[in-house]
Protein: Ribonuclease P protein component
Amino acid sequence: MNKHQRIKKNKEFQHVFKKGKSFANRQFIVYVLKGEQPEFRLGLSVSKKVGNAVARNRVKRYIRQTFLELKDDLLPNADYIIIARPQAATLDFHESKKSLEHVLKIARALPKK
Structure:
């Protein structure tokens, strides 16, 4: 993922939290805010409750890889913030991808197949 596809600043996170809509399942919370930009942007939040640094970085890698694989199907002009819940640390890549796809379908960010 390119730098311009990431949400890093606290101000941008707060804007998506206030204006966007949230959707959740047991492992992830997703905030979606449709915007004007040409590409989607992704912000990640994985707290220390999820686990140690190794576990948190693994969860973030899984989320980024899932978004890379789904980038053609996602809404192109939206901001996404993914918050990982502690249960996300127990999943392998395929389970976390399936869980993220599920919550993105609930959010209507992914078309149902």
